[in-house]
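WARN no homologs supplied; continuing
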Amino acid sequence: MLKNKRIIVTGGKGFLGQHLIGKLADYNCQAIEIADLPEYNLTNLEDVRKMFADKKPDIVIHLAAKVGGIGYNQEKPAELFYDNLIMGTQLIHEAYLHKIEKFVALGTICAYPKFTPVPFKEEDIWNGYPEETNAPYGLAKKMMLVQSQAYRQQYGFNSIFLLPVNLYGPGDNFDPRSSHVIPALIKKCFDAMDNHSDTLEVWGTGRATREFFYVEDAATAISMAADAYNKSEPVNIGAGFEISIKDLTDLIAKLSGFSGKIMWDSSKPDGQPRRLLDTNKAMKEFGFRATTDFTTGLTKTIDWYRKNRHRINHVAASCRA
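OK structure emitted
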């Protein structure tokens, strides 16, 4: 389906977007374009309309999102709800009006209920309320599923909805104000070593579990779904394993070279108790299965940060100034 098509990737300058564009290049597309800030503010309807008029896409892959870890979700729940909701709603509606061939929407594992049976199956997505610390974000993204199914039912509009778990990999977001757990922990380890500290403080109890999805695998899954999947039922994409935050922290410390003591701040929230996706549907529908070993992916991510951290920290300091 992607061959000779004009494709727009929203958020294409971001972490996942850069990897996805590399994968799409293998599909002999006519053109692969990016819709991202500052050229297009996708919360602004006029910018959305301008993007469709300028780029004239056949297919839209919507990656753009406002995201962050537990602290960021607690600090900015209204912004996370509004910005993600309005981006998705406007983009799908304008895509329908412009008669594009396909819309690929990226949801989030945060859309699942707080106490979903493990592994999370797609049919469980409506069986409860999401974990409270990231519910506004998760629900905003989940509305794209509702809109996708409604527009297919009434208008015959071809849109799909993918549910990825937390991504990680080279080029991740290491800004402590908005980063997810893996880049946040990697940065903490290096900061502690730079400061000759023999302790490292981590939020929560360490008992919660998470599944992590290497960004190159995620880009492969999205490309395969965009090319071959054409149904409105949601599809999980992930690695199909879980690890406790405690074991994750120990592994990152070991791979980073931090040998001090890890202190757990149990006054801070753990977030959702467990996260693990059932990924069988992705294999059945479009042949995807993750291939990157977790330790291998984590080592590549840490090595990338080790080589680039001074530049990243300099840029972050300049932005704050």
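The mean pLDDT is 95.
OK
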